[in-house]
């Protein structure tokens, strides 16, 4: 596999066993990073790490349920035990499930907010305790254009991504004086298992997001929205809120 001037940097990547996470793992491995891959599906995770290793990369699989704080602490400790440091954390793991704003069940709220918002906060807190003394490191959060355009039927998911963006912005401002970089990558609809039932929406593949994540690590940015067409949609929604409400109320984007 290839290498860059960042060859050897250690990256924790959550949600690594499928979708954007799996493709990102391959993209980063090609660039010479040392990877710690976290996800719940141990078999898929092990196969991915093994395949990367066979191709000359270096990947440590750590099966992790990010909603369990003790497992997050174990993930950080295993990374330090194996590699001695953490240079980048990519909070990529996420879940989505349709439910209306007026009727979310408690398990639904706990699952979506726990995975998409609370777990990244907790894992970042654990990682920063090792980055801040070195005054070096990078947190990359994978958000969503749902933090700008809130489609009906995904209320809790949308809330989790709005929260992610607000938390990311605050974190970035707090960490800047401490030498820690913070970036947000906000994809729109991406062709992954999470969107396999969505109809009528053009989608790019996960490799688009993977390349952006890799680029953000070497060339830090505050936020990258992808694909670029979503910037236009966000601008329209902001400029014309009334018509946007009418259109979105009449059209449920997600089909589950």
UniProtKB/TrEMBL annotation:
Gene Ontology terms, MF aspect: oxidoreductase activity
Lineage: superkingdom: Bacteria
Keywords assigned: Oxidoreductase
A GO CC term assigned to this protein in UniProt: membrane
Family named by the database record: Belongs to the short-chain dehydrogenases/reductases (SDR) family.
Protein name: Short-chain dehydrogenase
Organism for this UniProt entry: Candidatus Viridilinea mediisalina
């Amino acid at each position: 596999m290839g290498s860059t001037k960042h060859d050897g940097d250690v990256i924790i990547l959550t949600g690594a066993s499928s979708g954007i996470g799996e493709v990102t793992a391959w993209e980063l491995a090609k660039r010479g990073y040392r990877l710690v891959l976290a996800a719940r599906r141990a078999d898929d995770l092990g196969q991915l790490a093994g395949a990367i290793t066979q191709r000359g990369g270096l990947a440590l699989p750590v099966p992790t349920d990010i909603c369990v704080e003790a497992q997050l602490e174990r993930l950080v400790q295993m990374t330090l035990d194996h590699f001695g440091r953490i240079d980048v954390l990519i909070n990529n793991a996420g879940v989505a499930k349709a439910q209306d704003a007026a009727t979310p069940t408690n398990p639904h709220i706990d699952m979506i907010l726990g995975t998409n918002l609370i777990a990244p906060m907790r894992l970042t807190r654990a990682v920063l305790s090792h980055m801040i003394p070195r005054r070096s490191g990078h947190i990359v959060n994978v958000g969503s254009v749902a933090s700008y355009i809130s489609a009906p039927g995904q209320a809790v998911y949308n809330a989790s991504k709005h929260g992610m963006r607000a938390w990311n912005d605050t974190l970035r401002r707090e960490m800047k004086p401490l030498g820690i970089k913070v970036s947000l990558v906000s994809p729109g609809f991406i062709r992954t298992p999470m969107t396999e039932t969505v109809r009528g929406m053009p989608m790019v593949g996960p490799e688009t997001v993977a390349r952006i994540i890799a680029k953000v690590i070497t060339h830090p940015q505050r936020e990258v929205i992808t694909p670029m067409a979503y910037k236009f949609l966000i601008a329209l929604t902001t400029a014309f809120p009334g018509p946007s409400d009418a259109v979105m109320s009449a059209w449920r984007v997600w089909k589950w």
